[in-house]
Structure formats: structure tokens, C-alpha cells
């Protein structure tokens, strides 16, 4: 683990914890659930206000690449007995997300919280609850880690 | 352009005269295509030849340095006419996929826009109006939460690593500043892990690309990554240039220039087999990704055939086995040489491994092991017998195709054993090294011609029945017979007393085999130009 990796994540974690403690600063609908180490973090995400996902709560799993922040983290929705991924044209039923911020558009100056907010707004702006095209094929052949997938990012309408 | 390189057999082709090379670069500034078309090479890169064979294409093997020189010439050309530095010119060219004409057009039209698009200049600060249409993910929302931008005032806090003690900082023309350590880690990760030559500014949403000197500066003591970066740039240049192709052999850094095969339409009349010149084995097709020599069959037909073989691999698998049963006494016979003339150890029945027919008839005019008798297909009326007939037909060609491939391998393997014996003989007798080399040459010829034969079966499978196909199959049969004869000679027991006679026979046969191979390739190549070959399927994926 590099010095940059740990200093950077400790700093991000510290900022998130300060924000979470302060309702004025907190990003509404996003909550850190678990960050026991500097490898995998969990967040809960919900869209507040009017949206197709009213009253639904989702869990995000964020796994850090050893070269974070130069490489984006692997981010996916948790699929378990308790929580399901959202039905969304860019979210596969295995929890993988097709979003350019997690791939080509990642920049080392972005942060975990920036990703959470992007994904939250991706849900908020959704016009129709439907699965991605080719969901079944993708899920059948998908690698465990979504970062191994070369996504073709769908449209501008996210 | 006046530098025609002439090669002789024993000359190292990668060692050009320095003066010539330097001249090339100067001249190359006009256009690389011209540069290349002037130098005509024969297939085996022996001499510049005017009487080129119809089945050969003009091409030029290039060393890594020569490709670099072509790239530099393009950069210098743009640098001169635009009046910009060569690093800026290089980035503009990379942005336009090295298309000088389109770049010139666009640059003359709107130099400012293209400089932004290429990542040379930052996007000017907008007087924000309207939605940001260039981005796919909502950018506005996350900007509120991004990690705060460094302020240039003291103390500097690197916005990537949060180090506030870093004293060495760097930034591109956009003014986004980061610590040198972060730049280095980021650049190494881009180049090494992602194989990316476009090193973008680390700031979110900033499209400015690092120029070459910046990358080299950041990587200062990391020579490996620097070399990798330079190679990525050259690879990108080659990938964008229709006239150039890298040698596909692993860890070979040479390439080939072949403008005559650069258009898709050219591939409907030529099979551009080329060689990078590093090794006789480094032969490949300029027109497609099939490695090795697939003459005489066109790229598109070869691709079709390989796909068919993949799709039908299960049905045809049994053929590849090395053992068969003698059709007379049913004892198991193993094939361990390249020759298809088999003799059953038990009953002494002599037969052909491919068709299992009696060998004695193979030399006669009425017997054609290579031709498929379409009777059953013509007679087939119901769907089931039709599909059986079409499978039988396919297996006829596939069987021979696979057998030539296998026989070529077996010949080479068998030769390894022979070679040892020959070397021993050289020590115990008064034979010279040269005198024992004839076997090696003959094995190479057999391997080569079996490759031709192999592909003739892919070709014949798709050729429409008729006179033309019959003539093609005559040539195929003659070559096949000659190759089998030579193959058989190569499996003769070698004794020092018989070597002079064997040597004469092998040499004579080798000459004949090569002649037959040339006749076949020449005739098919001319047939493409004369549009003589009619296919039994639609061949238009060109
Ligand atoms: Zn830093
Ligand atoms: Zn920048
Ligand atoms: Zn090569
Ligand atoms: Zn080809
Ligand atoms: Zn037998
Ligand atoms: Zn034999
Ligand atoms: Zn036969």
C-alpha cells in the first residue's frame, strides 16, 4: 500500500465522517455504513424527494484499487437477501454499474463521495425503470470485478 | 528519392548505410507513401526486382528506427508548415490519427478549436450558458463535492495526495498543479497498466494532454517506462497508418510498409504475403490477421474457411488423430512422418493416408486423391442425405487441409532426428557441412509447399465447379504429387555411401517442387486479376 493511497483514503474518510456528523454539510440520502479498513467501504444510497426510486434504499460497495486514486475504485450495488440493486438502464442485476466516471472519465482529483453523488443523481434523473439491454448475457459472463469490464457508456441521458 | 536498397543473401538488411538513412528522413518529409513506393522488394528480400511474380507484392520491411524516422518526418512536416514546435505538431497529428491532410484542412479552418480538441490548450473559461454537452455523466453535481483545488498560494497542498510538504510541483498549460510524485505515479500507471500514450491532466474534466518532454521529465529516472511510452507512440503511428503494419511475431519490433495492399478493394485481387526481414519465419499477411502465408487463397475466403473450421470443429476432430486402421487387415497404423505413402507393417498393403486408397493408383492420371467426387451431392434429394452429402464434401477438403498442416509438422520433427544423424556423419566421413545441408533446404521447401497445398483445399472448397476449378485442381494435384515424392525421399534411410545419390535426387526433386509451387501460385494470382475464379458462395465482405 503506497503512502499516497493511505494518506488519501484516511483524509477522505475523515472528511466523510466530519460531514456525516454535521447535518448542514451532509449529502442528503448518502450514508457511510462501514469502513473498517482502507480496502472496502459500504454506503447506503437513497433518492430523496420525488423520483422513481422513492422509499427504496440501496447499498454501494466500493473497493479500492492498490493504485487509488490514480485508478478508479471498483464500485457496485450490493445484491443480497436484504438489499437489491435498483432497476435502472445502467445497472445490471448483478450490481455492476455502467458509468463513465468509474472508467474513462475518472480523474485522481475526484473522490469516493463524488462517485456516490454521481450515482445518486443518475438514479434521480431516471425516466423509466428498466434493465440494461443485454442484461442476462452480461450477467452470465461478467467478471467478478466490474473494473474488468470494458463498458460502452450509454448515451448522455444519465 | 534515390536510395534503392539492394540486398544480397548474406547481407544483414537492418544495417543501412547511415548516410542513406539520413537522406531518407529529409526526403521523407514530403510523404511516407512516396518514400516507400520507390523501393521495390522481392518477396524473399534478395534484390530489387523488376520482374516481380504475380503472386508477390511490393513491400518494404522496416526496422523500428526506420518507422520512427517516418514518424519524425511527418512531425517535422507539420511543424514546418504550421510554424509550431514539433511536440505540439506531434500531439496534433496524434489527435487526427496521423492524417496530415485532414489535420492541415482543419487547422487552416480553425486552429484554435483543434488545439483545444487535441489537448494542447485548455478550454477557455466559459461564461456559463447552456448545458455541457460534451460530458456523459452529470458533472455539475459532483463538482460541489470534489476535493478542493489547490491554491497556488503557500503552503501548497497537492489535491491528489494531500501532501503539504511537497516542494516539487508541475502543471500543464491549464495551470492545474500537482506534486511531482503524483504525476510520476499517475503517468506510470497510464503507460504501463493501461498502455495509454495520452497522458491527460489529472484534474477532473480537464482535457489537456501532456507533451512528450513533460512525460519524459516526469519519468526522469524510469528508463523502462520512457521506452514503453516511446514505443506506444510508434505503435500508435503504425496503427493509424494504412500502409504500415507491425510484424505479428512475439517480441518482434519490425514492421512492413505495403501501400499496394492498404485498401480493402486491393484484397480482392491480391494476397499480400510479406516478411519483416528479421527471420525467414516472420512471414505474415498484410491484408488480414492470419499469421503465416495463406496464398493462394484471398484473405476473405481464408477467413471464411477458418470460421467454418471453427464452427465444425467437433465433427472434424476425429480426423486429426494420428492413427488409422489398415483397410485390408484392420491393424492399427500410426503416422509418424510427413509422407502420406503408408505401408502396413503387418500385411504390407500400400495405401494413401489421406484417402485410404491404394498407393499404386496415385501416380496414374485417372486417380485423383485431391478431387472431390460430387456424385452423392447431386443425387441427394431429401434434406437428410443432402446434409450428409455436404458434410462429406466438407470433410474431404478439411481432411486434406488438416493433413497437410500435420504432415508439415511431422516432416520438421522427423528432420530433427535426421539432422543429428547428418551431423554425426559429418564428423565420421569426409562430407562437408555444405554437403549435408541439402536435407534442411528440402525440408523447408516441403514445409512451405505443404502450406500452399493446405490453403489450396480451402480455395477449392469455395471454387465453383467447372473448367477453371478443374485446371486449378490439376495444378494442385501436380504440386501435391511432387511434394509427396520429395517427402518420401526425405524419409529414406541415410547411409554415408548413399548420400551422393540421395543428394542428387533430393536436389532435383526440390527444384521441381518449387517450380510446381510457383506455377500454382502464379496461375491463381493471375486468375484473380483476370477474374477467372468463380466462387460457390457470396464473397463480398471485402
Ligand atoms: Zn501529490
Ligand atoms: Zn488541467
Ligand atoms: Zn518479425
Ligand atoms: Zn490475408
Ligand atoms: Zn494391413
Ligand atoms: Zn513413405
Ligand atoms: Zn489419396
TrEMBL record, chain A:
What SMART domains does this protein map onto? UBCc
> Which stretches make up the UBC core domain?
4-158
Pfam families given for it? Answer: UQ_con (PF00179)
PROSITE patterns recorded for this chain?
UBC_2
Quick check: keyword Transmembrane helix in the entry? no
Query: Which UniProt keywords are listed?
Result: Ubl conjugation pathway
Q: Which InterPro entries does the annotation name?
A: Ub_conjugating_enzyme, UBC, UBQ-conjugating_enzyme/RWD
What CDD domains is this protein classified in?
UBCc_UBE2W (cd23808)
Q: Which PANTHER family match?
A: UBIQUITIN-CONJUGATING ENZYME E2
Q: What is this protein called?
A: Ubiquitin-conjugating enzyme/RWD-like protein
Native source organism of the sequence? Multifurca ochricompacta
Native organism taxonomy: Eukaryota, Fungi, Dikarya, Basidiomycota, Agaricomycotina
Automatic annotation (TrEMBL), chain B:
Q: Its Enzyme Commission number?
A: 2.3.2.31
CDD domains, sorted: Rcat_RBR_HHARI-like, RING-HC_RBR_TRIAD1
Please name the InterPro entries in this protein's record.
Ariadne, ARIH1-like_UBL, E3_UB_ligase_RBR, IBR_dom, TRIAD_supradom, Znf_RING, Znf_RING/FYVE/PHD
- Under which main EC class is this enzyme filed? transferase
Q: Does the keyword Zinc-finger apply?
A: yes
Please provide the record's keywords in A-Z order.
Metal-binding, Repeat, Transferase, Ubl conjugation pathway, Zinc, Zinc-finger
Its BP terms in the Gene Ontology are: protein ubiquitination
| Domain RING-type, first and last residues per copy | 154-373, 158-201
State a single Pfam family of this protein. Answer: IBR
Q: Which reaction does it catalyse?
A: [E2 ubiquitin-conjugating enzyme]-S-ubiquitinyl-L-cysteine + [acceptor protein]-L-lysine = [E2 ubiquitin-conjugating enzyme]-L-cysteine + [acceptor protein]-N(6)-ubiquitinyl-L-lysine
- What segment(s) does the record annotate as region Disordered? 1-37, 122-147
Recall the GO molecular function terms of this protein's record: ubiquitin protein ligase activity; zinc ion binding
Q: Which PROSITE patterns match?
A: TRIAD (PS51873), ZF_RING_2 (PS50089)
What SMART domains does this protein's entry cite? IBR
- Which domain of life, per UniProt? Eukaryota
Determine if Transferase is one of this entry's keywords: yes
What's the protein called, per UniProt? RBR-type E3 ubiquitin transferase
Q: Which organism is it from?
A: Multifurca ochricompacta
